[in-house]
Amino acid sequence: MSDHLLQVEGLVKHFPVRGGALNRIVSQVQAVNGVSFTVRRGEVLGLVGESGSGKTTVGRLVLRLEDTTAGKVVFDGTNVLDLSKRDLRRFRKRMQIIFQDPYASLNPREKVRTVIGHALALHGIGTPASRPDRTVELIEQVGLSAAHLDRFPHEFSGGQRQRIGIARALAVNPDFLVADEPVSALDVSIQAQVINLLSDLKEELDLTMLFIAHDLAVVEHICDRVAVMYLGKIMEIAPSNALYRTPNHPYTEALLSAVPVPEPGRQRKRTVLSGDIPSPIDPPSGCVFRSRCPRAEAICAEEVPHLKKVGPDHFSACHLTT
Ligand code: SF4
CB under 8 Å to 30, separation ≥6 — which residues? Predict the structure, then answer.
């Protein structure tokens, strides 16, 4: 059995843009452009980048919620992209998603008991007689109580709704979770509680996770490794410790410079990135980060930098890397 539960190879997703009187394809949004990474069993890999970096699209492609333009998604030895609809259903049980906005994915007319009960019935988990007990078990596992089962989604706070979203994802006993910005919509005070819950559940249930976030501060304590994405590509991937202490890529440095250092008296040099992330319809030539990179040189416009090893398990895509 491979150490890796998930292997993503050369993942590409281009969305056609149509225009003109004939509604022809006039260009392509290059949302994901050759992304490769692995997630080891029991590992949490963070996928971090600004909005428009392609990180959420990667999560959706991994779960086959979107069609892929090219590449492979190998889950436990099987290329998910080759599966028939029927076989995919079997895999879906093992791979679940937690959404950024659980309210949008919860039916406002269904009580929590029904939401979780449906997830169990849909995937044929347990029997009609055993499902009510399992429903109570699940709601308690996420820090709520049986009394909450007879309430509607609007009766909960944002943090509680996210807990319900997590309970629903766990209903099918998955071994892999994609957490798609699960705390971005929550107050800062609540974010830590939900991250701690996910961290505890990961240990308890031996979960493997792809944790998507736009902020490096959010993923620091839950992720074993972090991949930093920019304009559809991975710029740097490293064990958390190495990425936070000795970042290599100028983009990671810029993102990290905005993250507060917990040690009193210590500060990071602040790098303010100028401008916005360029359009994925027409990304810069060479290094896609060059239009905002404070260290760009002539070669950066001419050659695409590929991920190079810069330390143990640490890779960076920058021409200045030695
Ligand atoms: Fe900056 Fe050039 Fe490195 Fe890209 S390759 S990050 S533009 S120095």
Answer: 14, 231, 232, 280, 281, 283
Instruction: Judge whether 299 and 286 are in contact, CB under 8 Å.
Output: yes
pLDDT of residue 133: 94
pLDDT digits (tens, 9 = 90+) for 261-273: 666 666 667 777 8
CA-CA distance, 196 to 52, in Å (whole number)?
27
pTM for this prediction: 0.92
Q: Is the CB of 230 under 6 A from ligand 1?
A: no
CA distance 256 to 267: 11
Terminal-to-terminal C-alpha distance of the chain: 35
pLDDT of residue 253 exceeding 80: yes
For helices 112-122 and 158-170, angle between their N-to-C axes, nearest 10 degrees: 20
What pLDDT is stored for residue 104 in this prediction?
Answer: 80
Q: Ligand 1 in contact with 233 (CB < 6 A)?
A: no
Is 135 in contact with 116 (CB distance < 8 Å)? yes
Compute the distance between CA of residue 98 and CA of residue 179 in angstroms, rounded to an integer. 5
Distance separating alpha carbons of residues 37 and 90, to the nearest angstrom: 23
**Best mutation site among 235, 290, 292, 310 for ligand 1 pocket (most ligand atoms within 8 Å of CB):** 290
CA 190 from chain center: how many Å? 19
What tokens were used for 139?
Answer: 């709601």
Strand partners, 24: 19
103 φ, ψ (degrees, to nearest 5): -60, -40
Query: d(Cα 94, Cα 225) in Å, to the nearest integer?
Result: 22
C-alpha 287/C-alpha 318 separation (Å) is 8
Residue-level pLDDT at 264: 62
Residue 302 near residue 286 (C-beta atoms within 8 A): yes
